[in-house]
Design a protein that fits this description.
heterodimer; A: about 625 residues; alpha/beta; about 30% strand; B: about 325 residues; six-stranded mixed β-sheet; elongated
């Protein structure tokens, strides 16, 4: 027998103190109730007989004392939490990894796989032996403990209540590493994976777990069912007509049966498109929706089975996208007249263009962008600028120092990744002549002949600048689609419209969401309404999320005014669409066996027996008192 | 173990003190007295007023006995016929007819204060009033004497109309239970104060530490006709007690500590019954009528029972 609660000394101290108090109370003369009687002599005979029963009375009081001392001793001993010596070292230490990935939201078992997992873990908790300890953890993209490592079933059940589904894949390697860390040095270490088996490989962690002596068990969940998933959903605005969008949807039927589904698109929450599609067994079906209008901020795709029912995996039946922000830019075009330039600027309805001759420069008002057509102002403008063939007049501070002219240059080197040349084809553009200039150190050649720049991006007067070092009228560029694209891409680059905009992020990944550059923190509001503060680094909020849907990034803008930006996150890996549970879960090359539930049966702590005994004694005493047996 | 939780309850409550409530002799009570008076006449039918012959010999007309002539005796009562036959001078003796005196001796000691809902004293007062009424109805001379360890009060002998009963009510109503029981001394005082012999109805619980026999014997020795009515409350026989208690005699203040158990209560009931049996045996052996009445018995039923069994009055 060993004491795992109070030490023997403490138990004896408690016992001694209370036993002494009981004995002192016993030695005190019993205070009797005073009763008036009419003729006490009648009691004489009774009292004479009482002498013969006095011994019994004394024994009864003594017995009462002994019972009280026994109660005190039992309670004091219970505080020591005694356990059988052999049983102290025999407890199991178990880490239960509950798969909370997207596939666990499948409803092939009622009410869902996750609830089934919760119920199964409850059984494990109920079957804990008196010396066993357990930790329950949620395994998704990361592994988060839900309870402490404890033998107290209440704590474990409370932790289990916090289990929540996520829209990410479960990372087994992280789970196993977590379990190995927790179980290091613990007696009889075990890992129980409660999952449908759709897990990212444990990799090296599996082997480490085996080497650490962990016994890995698997409790399979799920039966399999029907599912069609949205595995890709992307949207972008047309560069030249930003009121319309192009949408890509990919559906995947991972089951063995063909399925007919209804795909609907919702723009800003309103239905804008509905199609009925047939997805063959195992087929990945891609659909492009051209010229989609009616969506200004958000777009959502939903699928249902054609018969109106839902499939068994609701997590992948929805996808979300955020359309890029459309901003109205004010453009000042300083030109003596250039039809090519005017025509290109007319293509974007979101541009407010003001044309002024060089003599009237600068025009009144504030502008985002100034385009200089074959003319350079005396001083750089206080706006972003596009220089077309920037030949400086006398006395002007040219953006470049012109050193000469190059005959028939070609677009040999093009930096295709730069936003201003995205979606353009410049390689075979013919140019008569271009300027030979001295570039500054921070200037960047976007396109050019070998050694001779043709398109340059840089900074002047703390504003962005793009320069075309040739006269477009002496080239065939205006006759190409690349010409307006080049202009509009440049303007978008200036006003922070990103042609490479991401319409959605992937759950479980680290996101870098554009945010104002002058803030250090932002508030992220999840689809469930939960708010948390995230850091902002170099104008990007660094965050992540486990649920698909629309997130809101709240920041403090200029003069303290709050600014909100909405972005979308979608279920990441398409493997989560496979809801047929695996036959076996192999860990380090060996199939994990199911766990044994309730090895110890019931909890057999001795203190419980002692307290029950005390309660029994109190009950008997109370009964005998009320039945006038002992009084 | 949890005795401190069990304090309270009614066991320790002192008994209700006897009070002369106005409802003690209410109209209902008086109606019952009228009925009892009628019934008592029927039960003792054939007798007329003042017919009870006394033990005294004297100037009556009924021959009683002879005795030797002594100088100074009235010659008129010499039995000359007997002298002629026997040659002895013998005097004729006649029974003297006189009114019957009824003494109601009421115990008002503190022990009479016990009883629920009415105390023994209240019950005894009603008995005393009823017996007095019946006696008055039979034209007897009635006196009520209260006592504890001495004579406490006395309603002077009265006879005549039944209306005299209201004097008895007025006498009885304010009586309180006070003092210790001392029957012997009280009866000695009583017999010394009352030379006129008669019926002495002793109403008491007879809880006399010095013994109940002395008082009864005193009455007997002084030519009274004692009747003993013992009143007791049912609670006295079966007290609702339990646990460790200290018993205090409410007359003497004497204390006894006892642990009450069902067995102890049983023993006490036996002791109480034995005490009553001892009183009854004593009275029987001395030819003294004895009645034991529980206060739960309606007083009118108790009176009728007494009348049927022996005709205590009339």
């Amino acid at each position: 027998m060993e004491l795992t609660g109070l030490t023997l000394t403490e138990v004896l101290t408690v016992l001694g103190g209370f036993a002494a108090a009981v004995v002192v109370l016993y030695l005190l003369k019993l205070r009797r109730r005073q009763i008036q009687v009419p003729f006490v002599h009648l009691w004489q005979q009774v009292l004479a007989e009482r002498q013969t029963t006095r011994l019994f009375s004394v024994l009864k009081r003594l017995l009462s004392l002994l019972v009280a001392l026994a109660v005190v001793a039992a309670l004091a001993f219970a505080m020591g939490d005694p356990r059988y010596a052999g049983a102290v070292d025999e407890g199991q230490t178990t880490v239960v990894l509950v798969d909370a990935s997207a596939s666990m939201q499948a409803t092939d078992v009622e009410p869902s796989r996750l609830e089934e997992a919760r119920a199964r873990v409850e059984e494990l908790v109920a079957g804990l032996g008196g010396n066993d300890r357990m930790l329950v953890a949620q395994m998704d993209a990361s592994t988060v403990p839900l309870s402490p490592l404890s033998g107290q079933t209440r704590l474990l059940r409370e932790g289990l209540e916090e289990l929540e589904p996520t829209d990410v894949a479960a990372d087994l390697s992280r789970g196993l590493r977590f379990a190995a860390d927790v179980l290091r040095g613990q007696p009889d270490p075990r890992v129980v994976i409660v999952s449908d088996g759709v897990l990212e490989s444990g990799g090296e962690a599996e082997a480490r777990a085996r080497e650490a002596g962990l016994t890995v068990r698997w409790m399979p969940i799920g039966e399999g069912g029907r599912n069609v998933a949205i595995t890709a959903f992307s949207v972008r605005r047309y560069p030249l007509d930003k009121s319309r969008s192009q949408v890509l949807v990919e559906l995947w039927n991972p089951t063995d049966e063909d399925e007919a589904v209804e795909l609907s698109l919702l723009g800003d929450g309103q239905p804008i498109e509905l199609q009925r599609l047939r997805v063959a067994a195992g087929e990945r079906l891609r659909r492009f929706f051209q010229n989609v209008s009616g969506a200004d901020r958000t777009l959502e795709a939903r699928i249902t089975l054609a018969d109106g029912s839902r499939d068994d995996q609701p997590a992948d039946d929805r996808a979300y996208a955020r359309l890029p922000e459309r901003r109205r830019a004010r453009v000042q075009a300083v030109t003596d007249g250039n039809l090519y330039l005017s025509a290109a600027l007319l293509l974007d309805e979101y541009l407010d263009v003001v044309e002024v001759p060089p003599s009237a420069y600068p025009a009144e008002g504030r502008f985002d962008v100034t385009i200089f057509d074959s003319w350079v102002p005396p001083t750089p403008p206080d706006t972003h600028a596009i220089y077309l063939h920037p030949v400086p007049p006398e006395g002007a501070r040219a953006p470049f120092e012109v050193t000469g002219e190059i005959e028939r240059p070609f677009f040999d080197d093009i930096e295709h990744e730069h936003p201003i040349v995205q979606f353009t084809a410049l390689r075979d553009v013919n140019v008569a002549t271009s300027l030979e200039v001295e570039l500054r150190d921070d200037d960047r050649v976007i396109a050019g002949d070998r050694g001779a720049p043709l398109i340059v991006a840089g900074t002047r007067n703390d504003h962005r600048m793009v320069a075309l070092l040739f006269d477009v009228r002496r080239s065939d560029l205006p006759l190409r689609v690349a010409w307006p694209l080049l202009l509009l891409n440049s303007i978008d680059w200036f006003v922070q419209e990103d042609a490479g905009y991401l319409s959605s992020y992937e759950t479980g990944e680290t996101w870098h969401v554009p945010a104002p550059a002058d803030v250090t923190t932002a508030t992220l509001v999840t689809p469930g309404g939960e708010e948390r503060t995230v850091p902002v680094v170099d104008g990007r909020a660094v965050c992540t999320g486990l649920r698909a849907g629309f997130y809101t990034l709240r920041t403090e803008g200029a003069e303290g005014a709050p600014e909100e930006d909405v972005f979308a996150a979608n279920l990441g890996p398409s493997r989560e669409a496979v809801i047929d549970p695996v036959e076996t879960l192999e860990v380090a090359g060996r199939a994990a066996e199911p766990p044994s539930i309730g090895r110890a049966g019931v909890r057999t702590e001795i203190w419980m027996v002692l307290v029950l005994a005390v309660l029994g004694v109190v009950l008997v005493e109370w009964f005998t008192y009320h039945r006038r047996i002992t009084v | 173990m949890f005795g401190w939780l069990r304090k309270g309850g009614t066991e320790g409550r002192p008994p209700r003190a006897s009070g002369g409530g106005d409802d003690l002799f209410d109209e209902e009570f008086q109606r019952k007295l009228d009925v009892l008076a009628l019934v008592s006449r029927r039960l003792v039918a054939g007798r007329t007023r003042a017919e009870r012959r006394s033990k005294k010999t004297g100037a009556g007309i009924e021959f009683a006995d002879h005795r030797q002539y002594a100088p100074g005796d009235d010659f008129r009562y010499l039995d000359w016929n007997l002298y002629a036959r026997t040659g002895r001078l013998l005097l004729r003796l006649y029974e003297e007819e006189e009114d019957l005196s009824v003494y109601v001796l009421l115990d008002v000691s503190r022990s009479m204060a016990f009883g629920e809902p009415r105390s023994k004293l209240d019950y005894a007062k009603r008995l005393a009033a009823a017996l007095s009424y019946i006696a008055l109805a039979n034209l007897d001379r009635v006196s009520i004497v209260t006592f504890a360890d001495e004579v406490v009060g006395r309603l002077p002998p009265t006879r005549g109309s039944k209306n005299r009963i209201f004097k008895a009510f007025e006498f009885l109503r304010p009586l309180e239970a006070e003092g210790r029981t001392g029957t012997t001394d009280a009866m000695k005082t009583f017999v010394a104060q009352n030379k006129r012999r008669g019926v002495a109805i002793l109403i008491s619980d007879l809880y006399d530490p010095t013994g109940f026999e002395g008082g009864i014997n005193t009455l007997r020795y002084h030519k009274f006709e004692p009747y003993v009515i013992q009143v007791f409350d049912p609670v006295e026989v079966r007290p609702p007690l339990h646990g460790d208690v200290r018993l205090v005699d409410n007359e003497t203040g004497e204390m006894r500590e006892v642990t009450i158990t069902p067995r102890v209560l049983e023993r006490y009931a036996e002791a109480h019954a034995a005490y009553r049996a001892r009183i009854e045996d004593f009275c029987t052996s001395k030819q003294v009528p004895y009645y034991a009445l529980e206060t739960s018995t309606p007083f009118d039923e108790a009176i009728l029972d007494i009348l049927r069994r022996g005709g205590m009055v009339a």
